[in-house]
Amino acid sequence: MRRSYLDYAMSVIVSRALPDVRDGLKPVHRRILYAMKEEGYDWNRPYRKSARIVGDVMGKYHPHGDSAIYDAMVRMAQDFSMRRQLVDGQGNFGSMDGDPPAAMRYTEARLTRAASEALLEDIDRETVDFQQNYDETTYEPTVLPARFPNLLVNGAGGIAVGMATNIPPHNMGEVIDACCALVDNPQISDEDLLPMVPGPDFPTGGIILGRAGIASAYRTGRGSVVMRGRTHMEAYGKDREAIVITEVPYQVNKARMLERIAEVVREKIIEGVSEIRDESDRHGLRVVIELRKDAMSDVVLNQLFRYTPLQTSFGVNMLAISGSRPQMMTLREVLTSFITFREQVITRRTAYELGKARERAHVLVGLAIAVANIDAVIDLIRSAPDPQAAREALLARDWPASEVSALIDLIDEPGYVVSEDGTYRLSDAQARAILDLRLQRLTGLERDKIAEELHSLADRIKDYLNILTSRERLMEVLRGELVDTRDRFADERRTTIEDSEFEHDIEDLIPREDMVVTVTHGGYIKRVPLSAYRAQRRGGRGRSGMSTRDEDFVSRLFVTDTHTPVLFFSSRGMVYKMKVYRLPQGTPQSRGKALVNLLPLEEGETITAFMPLPEDESTWNDMFVMFATSSGTVRRNRLSDFTNVMANGKIAMKLAPEDGYLVGVATCNEDSDVLLATAAGKAIRFPVTDVRVFSGRNSTGVRGVRLGRDDEVISMSILRHVQANSEERDAYLRHASAKRRAEIQQDESNGDRSEDVPAENSSLQLSEARLAELGANEEFILSVSDDGYGKRTSSYEYRVAGRGGQGIGNLDLSRSGGSEARVAAAFPVSLEDQIMLVTNAGQLIRTSVDGIRMAGRTTRGVTLFRMGEGEHVVSVAHLQDLDSETEEEAEAEVEEAAEAMAEPEAEVDDEAPTGSDDGDTDSSEV
């Protein structure tokens, strides 16, 4: 099997899939062109049925299916596939829309002039080797004597076994100029050679972006060329514009491109397009994309380049057969191989023509001798009994050659010279020519013609000998033929090259704006301008914030900038990356768009965590990412591990069924602490350094908190590390408690239930400077229960413990009726922040943090949201560093929901947990 497969693989590589560097053709193309030449289907002859050509090729040279032969011939006839067509087709040979060609019985073809005179010229002069065909009944050429580097001019593409080639087409004039430069100076540097071939020249035109990929392809044989269609703007109507596409990238199916444009418009990936029309006809390509009045044409055009085949890349892989083996070749190597091949062709052709010229001159010398001795020759022939005797008599006699000795010396034929006595012995060929001589050649005019032809042949023989003995003369002939081919068949460049390596960043055209990104329990996402929501004081009833149906409800939301990159972490442990401006924009009441239509999520996969990132990726190297799951495990990675996230996502964390789901992903550094809060009112704080940096992304991490029964982690926060001992923290809290007592008493007089920070038995007195330092580093943890209560607590009350403990009490969850609430959220806040609370009924309220009272760690807090029967908080969003709106903006009402919603499923358990732990113990104290 190994031997058989290797034989098959080598056959595919050498004899089927890869082109020859000399003529740039695969065997099937070479056989088609040779068969057409052999049958006389030249450019100046009538067209012939394609079926007849295919039959000749299949019957003589190519033992494969007729469809393979016809498809290869069709491509050579397509002006949008070949830079220089080799087959002149008549009929339907396909289109750029991917339409198939007509059947071979309906189409006709013949060779183009370029194929006949530049690829097949001199093939009958022993310029190339021939081999037996597959059934050994005839011979076929192993290569065509191409006069131009067809491998570069028309390009090639093929997939062999274990290797593939993909060579773009080029401009014939530029490639031949580069060949001439190599002929003139074989030691020319790449810096001087490469500019002569600035880049590929595609038959469909278009634009190439940048030169780095071209330079890489020419220097190494591999590279990527970014292609872009040619477009321009046209005004129509009143204050409206249209994008007109007149050229598409090479090998792009125009019909599929239009389908993709319509798809991204329909899915609102590209917004602002009102109509798409294909106005292409026999005169050229024209696609019109009409824009809406409010659309920005530059943004839409750049989005078309990004999301549709209007911009694509061509992966250059210059692999060809050289010396009977596949080889990755640079531009210089391809041109050098072609020049070497042309030297061989010209040498073999010259030797062939020299032999033919000497054969003719040899015959003419015999005729000249016969004419000079015409009387004796006639007497000899007249006296001979038969032609055989006359020929033998001519061969047996020495003929005087004094009159033609100068001509004999002129042609310089080896072995045939005038003897010392001035005689010449005729050869058999000369004797036969004399016997075949017509009487009219004996006239004086004909004798002069013989002498003139001899002189002409002598000059040609001398030139042939000069070519064969002088490399300088040989290269002169080679260069002259290249220039002649260029002048006859080269045309202007169609593809332009722009120096700009990258497209204009469409983010520069998108205004910066704060957006509220909302995600529903059912997996719908949208972005809404923050200005669409009005601020309210705590304790309000809120407004309808989103239309929910099918038992769906808002589960998560965060506020960020339109230019912010966001990582989406899924329940499957994958991470996806998307900029905020690419998310669908909606109104506060709209449902948004399903995440499965934006990200390549598998069936059953949901997005469980989101992480906005810094825009400047250079800052990612010194940052870390902390993961936390609902089962209490944590893991730390470097943020740079998630720099390159492809469109199909990247593995972020390996999650087993018992690991639950991701509840938090946040950036951190080694001077930070991790705060994990659970639904049962527990919290644990430990240093980031307690979690080692994981080098891989497939691990599950380590334990962060030990959970009780029916408990789970609901949030993870990153805090500044506490730079003080327990006595200093207690003294600071006692000092801060006295300052806040007036505020607390005022809130209690309004009926809110709270308690003061418990006094500690400590006599430590802190200086004003130390108090100021501790106050500057103080953070506040906002904890919210699902029944609408919340409070702010100093982060100093959450002492730093070891990773993996049970934690300490965070929130008093007891309520009337004996049942217990659950913690909905816990995260650090500042006085300038705001929060948004969403209930399972779709009600939403936005309020400022400075209106929420400071309270102790184990207290219940104050009322934040008054809810109806059976209603509870399902999501709390943190709005950081937001400017408060004016009173006039606060007067604006959010529109009521457009559709009636069904009762949503409860996501949080409202029942009291069975069993409890001491609120102030952790594993470090047990």
Tell me what the structure shows:
The chain is an alpha+beta fold. It has 4 domains: 174 residues, Topoisomerase II, domain 5 (Alpha-Beta Complex); 80 residues, Gyrase A, domain 2; 135 residues, Topoisomerase, domain 3; 381 residues, DNA gyrase/topoisomerase IV, subunit A, C-terminal (Neuraminidase, 6 Propeller). Helices cover 29% and strands 23% of the residues. It has 21 helices and 43 strands. The strands form 13 sheets. A 4-stranded mixed beta sheet has the order 14-9-8-19. The chain has a 4-stranded antiparallel beta sheet with strand order 10-11-13-12, covered by helices on one side. A 4-stranded antiparallel beta sheet has the order 23-20-21-26, with no helix packed on it. Strand 36 and strand 37 form a beta hairpin. Helix 7 packs antiparallel against helix 18. It holds the Pfam family DNA_gyraseA_C.
| Biggest β-sheet strands, sense, barrel | 4 strands, mixed
Query: Which CATH architecture of the largest domain is right?
Result: 6 Propeller
Mean pLDDT over the full residue set: 82
Number of domains: 4
Give the number of DSSP strands: 43
- Text of the CATH class of the largest domain: Mainly Beta
Number of helices: 21
Share in β-strands:
15-25%
Tell me the overall shape. elongated
CATH topology term of the largest domain: Neuraminidase
Give unreliable regions as ranges: 751-762, 882-926
Q: Span between N and C termini?
A: 69 Å
